[in-house]
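Fill-in record for Cbb3-type cytochrome c oxidase subunit.
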Amino acid sequence: MSVGERDPFTGHQTTGHEWNGIKELNTPVPKPVYFFLITMGVFALGWTLLMPSWPYGTGYFKGLLGVDQKQAVARSIEEATAQRASWMIRIEKEDLAQIQSDTDLMRTVREDGRTLFGDNCAACHGANARGNKGFPNIAESPMLWGDNPQTVLQTVTAGINGADPNTRVSQMLAFGRDGMLTQEQVSQLAGFVTSLSDAATITDTNKEDIAKGKDLFATNCVACHGKDAKGLVESGAPNLTDQYWIYGGSRGDIYQTIFSGRQGHMPSWGARLTPAQIKIITLYLLDLRKNEAGTTAGGAS
């Protein structure tokens, strides 16, 4: 088969190759392919000349247009910093009540507070602030030391059982482990405490033990949790009659808490964050609690 032979059906020349009677045609490359190749080549050459591109030595070709993304980013950061400084100064100088009354400033607090909370608090309390086992639900549950804005600010600043000299101090005694109560007494006390938030746990078979647990509570627990077991903000002791439990509200969890004790820890954020950042987290949390309370009230109605 000759190279110059033409296919009688298509009119194209053949390449001279033949496999099992099938001849290879020498068909030309489609013109659109040339068009796109040329277009892409021109575009690439133009982009290389106009924009920063080829490196050389200690520098690079900056392009005919003089575009510098590094400077553009730097300018953007400077502008954002200047804009941020205007409201950060206000947050530093104004008290919590003034900031809460300013709708525009609170909008900024919510945005920045969400980021600060996510970076510093969500690992323990969860992204929605509803807590994890061992870490309280601070979006809905009663605050251990109260939810007055200045009180919350102080708690965030000094922490709980932290390194700050003014840290909040909180400790649940290990009544069983340290021998203050017998295992039977711990069990009776756990039964009574469980019944405070779940009356359905009281039965004819355990009423006597729960009554004994009540007496044990009066002797050992009222100093911190109060006679009504609703807690005391002065000592940071939690309310034992609601459904919010830091370490779990089952009878087994409560038994373990009474027997072994608890001593939670919250970092002293005053050593890690600026006063303005602590204010923002405090205001963000208070605003979150307000919205959660509104949602709950709306659902209940």
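KEY FINDING: The beta strands are 14-19, 22-25, 55-56, 59-60.
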